[in-house]
Amino acid sequence: MNRQARRASKSSPAPVASKGGSSNDVMQDALAHHQAGRTDDALKIYAQVLAVQPQHAHALHFMGLALQQNGDVRRGIELMARSVRLAPREFAFHSNLGNAYLGLGELEAAVACFERALKIRSDIAELHHNLAMTRSRRGELDAAIASFREALRLREAYPEAHNGLGVALLSKSRLNEAQASFVRAIEISPSYAAAHSNLGTVLLSLGKSAEAIGPLQQSIAISPNNPDAYNNLANAHRDRFEYDEALAAYRQALMLDPKHARIRNNYATALHQLGLIRQAVVEFTQAIADDPLFAPSEANLALCLLSDPLATNESLMHIHQSIGRRLEEQVDVIAPRARPLDGRKLRVGYVSGDLRKHSVAYFIEAVLRHHDRSAFEIVAYYSHPTKDDVSLRLGKYVNVWNDVAGLTDAELAQKIANDQIDVLVDLSGHTTASRLGAFARKPAPVQMTWIGYPSTTGLSTVDYRIVDAITDPEGSEVNCTEQLVRLAKTFLCFTPPEDAPPVALRTSKSGITFGCFNALHKISEPTLDLWIEILTRLPESNLMVKSHAFSATEARQRITNRFSHAGIHESRLLLAPWIQSTYDHFSAYSRVDVALDTSPYNGTTTTCEAMWMGVPVVTLAGDRHAARVGASLLHAVGLREWIAHSPGQYVEIAVELASDPLRLSQTRLQLRDAVASCDLSDGATFTRGLENAYHAVFLKAVTTNDLF
Question: Which of 203, 409, 490, 642 has the least CB density, counted as fewest CB within 10 Å?
């Protein structure tokens, strides 16, 4: 379920009034005090009634309700439960007791109460709404949707039910229906702040961040002290790369609720994207301390630490194992046995939220296109709520495409098991739309991870990790929980972009320009040190860094201050913003002579794109997979001379390249052909090797049948 929308929808369950009650004047006096909010006065009178009539059902019930409202919830529930036993036909007693259990988070007891109330009176919309709210919190979304719809059948002009229905539909990734529900809630109740906030959330999920800002600002105008609305507004600005506005909104949200782990996690994610790694680590760590059960904080911290030069292989292994244990402790394992092939096709399932316009698509498309359909059946499980033209294209290459964003991890795992997948491949790791919670349930006899995340999953239920001998040389096994499957030559297969412009010759006379188009979070302090040394060695050179994060003042200042303190004037830096057009993005490489890779987290897509545009890339090979991908890519193209094995060598290679204009010109003319004709771009050969690996690990599973 979408946690932002869920929290915003948690208005109090609708109370259900009873038409019964004592005709005793004393009891009526107590109820009058109670309804006026004078619960202490009401409690005294209820106690007087019970002193005379200990089995007075209404006095017991309303005294229990008043105690609950005063904070003595357990004692209140005890008295309300007694009243239900004394007056089992009072539907309101069952409903109010259900609300009390719901407030404690005892959802099973709450459902039982609401269902008993509905057996007495099925024509009351509030009862169906309260049951729907409880089922929604239990994750029983289909049942919740049915109950919300029944409440609306009985009373269409019921804004809370429309909002609750929208939240449940959003959690099922039925985005257009959810949007309609929130719009209807607002039509009925224009001042309904939660509905405005949830409308903004669903527009964000639909990729309409610009449209989301209006409803979110309206929610804040109605309810200015709601931290969730500020959080959602911050998310909308972040999606639009309006980081200054996003940071301000996150900070306002945290001022209102400093212990809100989800908001702090989102704030830390923005800091991470801006390359403010140490600040992000502090905020992720605080989010984990505030709510250890909020899983995304730990996974996002692990991703952040991949960019942290202070992180060791041991510390990275520790946090990934922690995440893996947490995921596995919460689930029941399915673990089907491997079925012998006996002439049938091997069923391979790919699970990813990135089968769309995303870097992962560059490296999976050729494989999907070249799979041998006579020996393999390919099933895709797509976990992102929206599709684009890339999704539609990739869908044509598979036998079965499943949109699974609306399934829980348990439901997805059961579907995979029912589909009898032989080899299940994760393409996301600990990134957005990850479904490692499904992998923790072991729905396939062989499970693997590949390309989406440059480190271990930490899960004992993921059997293999697909790498190569460059990214993960002998001895790297200690850095992951999976067994390593090393493909020959390279673990990546690049599909060159069809919409890239022709390679353009450099005509600038303003000196050599180095460039880096990697995400800003990969540009570590040691990387900046190397770049400063290169620019110091070549005083006529410039540096172009392109990133969507440069809309943020803090991000720009981090880079410019770093170079300024080293004596390099700001005029030698070109901090370019995000470029929306793919064609224009590739065209920006015409301004770059030599691309500089980052460390300890290398570029992947950016390295391939730079070479495709004729730009040589200098990389520093490190001590872990994320720090060796650049070496793997250059090795696959046959350009090992651009791979440095020490910081000093990195500087020397860059300076040497920049000092040879003729060589740069020749490289620019020849590099695209070199990429197109090398192992990295040979989709057919690569896919045969990958298929051989799938067959080998599956046959091992059939032989041993004890992988798990």
Answer: 409
Distances (CA, A) of 611 to 331, 502, 596: 44, 12, 12
- Is pLDDT of 704 > 90? no
**For residues 552 and 565, what is the distance between their CA atoms, to the nearest angstrom?**
20
Rg of the Cα atoms in the chain: 30
**What would the mean pLDDT of 346-351 be, rounded to a whole number?**
98
Number of Cβ within a 10 Å radius of residue 89: 11
Contact of 645 with 631, CB cutoff 8 Å: no
Place of tokens 């020959």: 488
Burial class of residue 277 (count of CB atoms within 10 Å of its CB; 0-12, 13-18, 19+): buried
Each residue of 666-694: pLDDT tens digit? 999 999 999 999 999 999 999 999 999 99
- The verdict on whether omega for the bond into residue 54 sits within 30 degrees of 0, i.e. cis, is no
Q: Answer yes or no: are the C-beta atoms of 537 and 651 closer than 8 Å.
A: yes
Give the bridge partners for 158, in sequence order. Answer: none
The letter for the amino acid at 477 is E
Question: Measured between alpha carbons, how far is residue 497 from residues 64, 125, 296, 357, 686 in Å?
Answer: 68, 55, 32, 11, 18
Alpha helices in 430-581 (DSSP H): 436-439, 525-537, 553-565
Q: Beta-strand (E) ranges in 609-683?
A: 617-620, 643-644
Residue 665, amino acid: S
User: Would you give the distance in Å from CA 443 to the centre of its chain?
Assistant: 21
Residue with tokens 């909020």: 294
Which pLDDT band, with edges at 50, 70 and 90, does 578 fall under?
A: confident
Tokens 């069923």 — which residue?
347
Q: Which residues of 112-136 are buried (b: 16+ CB within 10 A; e: fewer)?
A: bbbebbbebeeebbbbbbbbbbbbb
What letter represents residue 332's amino acid? Answer: D
3 state SS for 270-335: HHHHCCCHHHHHHHHHHHHHHCCCCHHHHHHHHHHHCCCCCCCHHHHHHHHHHHHHHHHHCCCCCC
What's this model's pTM, rounded to 2 decimal places?
0.89
For 127-180, the pLDDT digits (tens) are: 999 999 999 999 899 999 999 999 999 999 999 999 999 999 999 999 999 999
Do 406 and 383 contact (CB within 8 A), yes or no? Answer: no
Alpha carbon distance 624, 317 (integer Å): 11
